Amino acid sequence: MQLYALDQNLNVISARNALKHHKYQCLECQSNLCLRGGLKRQNHFYHLEANRSCRQNGKSMEHLQVQLFLQNQLTEKNCILEKRFQEINRIADVFWISENIVFEVQCSPISSEEIKLRNRDYAKLGIKVIWILHERQFNKARLSGAESYLQRLPHYFTNMNADGRGIIYDFFRLFDKGRKVFGSKRFFVDVSSLVAVSQSTLKQRKNMIPDLLFQKMQVQSFCFKGDLTDYCGSHSFAASFFEQAIKFQDVKDKKSIFSQAFFLLIRSYQILFRILLEKATS
Question: Cβ distance 67 to 77 under 8 Å?
């Protein structure tokens, strides 16, 4: 599913302005598309023949609703849906023109390598990328490879449904051996409101911020109103759930130090035993 296509004159056309029973072309793979929708379903284009290699073909209705939500928040004049960047052969879900930011919506599995490649491609054009992960696939009990890679990079979650109801939110988690052991409350994110990040203020409050979250904040020059970085920058006291997370992290670190020390001790005895054994048999 997708919201934009090429018409017979190869002009980009919105599903809102397209006509049924006409053929259109996919922006990505140039395959034939048709229009469908109705009173209870958002107008969108679909591929006449399935093409698994085309990312546009794999979009769900939830994916489209997140795109439309972002367009509504950022205003139609200031953002472009399914913006094509020919220089890097990429089509961005949402491009925020005035801020030079791309929002990549992800409702299906994705590898950390693909995320790395997309971020790298957009960086060539000086474009910043914000990832929005749908909780249908992400924010589960186990940490996916993609989420592990994004832990220190800008990303949020969404629970938007096929009818367009839901929010975009920030969420802090801690994992032990890949399994979630701690989760904060949801922080509603206002994607239309950028906030400058004061690194000096965050450093003053480092002791109230879990290490993993602080590492992510250190590489941010901006955040969005309502997210965790904004919260930490505007509150001079540690939230109770952060205190719990910090205590858990301290216990985990102590266990890790003990485990490393125990391993080194055992390793030393093994080496000593091997030396003695070699001398006894020589």
Answer: no
